[in-house]
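[job 4471] stage=fold_predict status=RUNNING
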Amino acid sequence: MSKKGNFPEWDRIFDLQKSIQEKVYGYDFQSMTLKELSNFWLMNKHALEDELSEMFIALGGEKDGIGNAVWKPWKKDHYIADRMHIKDLSESDTSLLLFEIVDAFHFLINFAVSCGFSGSDVASAYIEKNKENIRRQEEGY
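[job 4471] inference complete, writing structure tokens
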């Protein structure tokens, strides 16, 4: 994919993620068969799902909040979620939430870098898709 935009910060993030996959874990995306790529994607899908679950726990504040009671109506503290806001989380819980989002982001990036897409490719495609989504809504999609 040709770069439509220049997003050096995104390129740096994607390059870092690709580097760890290649140097630490030994993946060679250039030589992977589609079957091997599919297995890599499957592992990353499961890892992403796990990180999304951890994000939900962190959303409720794992240390100073109500933890996974945010989405578990059978827990006694679930009712607190109706009155809590992100600003009510402690600094440590907000930091934990951000780290869980970043953990999930790692696995999303793996899908792109395994196909040879750069950060600029993804950022440009995102901007174009965002414009299309706005246009669709304006046209009654």
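[job 4471] summary: The chain has one domain: 8-138.
[job 4471] exit 0
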